[in-house]
Amino acid sequence: QVQLVESGGGLVQAGGSLRLSCAASRSIFSISAMGWYRQAPGKQRELVATITSSGTINYGNSVKGRFTISRDAAKNTVYLQMNSLKPEDTDVYYCSAHDQCAGIWCDYWGQGTQVTVSS
Q: What is the β-pairing status of strands 10-13 and 113-118?
């Protein structure tokens, strides 16, 4: 099991920056992969960025070159630095953890944090 607590969302103007944080309840290097997804009402959850325990990173096409995922092992925290924000980045952002549990793959989610980008 892993609990995830997000922080850092808010309101920002287009072109601005925000940094989201996701604190995990255990060592992030013991978790196969962590990442960020986003979802607007009535839409499917969309990949933003993921990072595996070995450091492999993957970004969604819409955020490549603008967002950066990173981690701090000492704080068991994963970050999402969001630059050059656009109104279409407005969503609820969810931290995720993907790991094995009792022999199967499990997905864990944070409570979500709202990001609103004004034009």
A: parallel
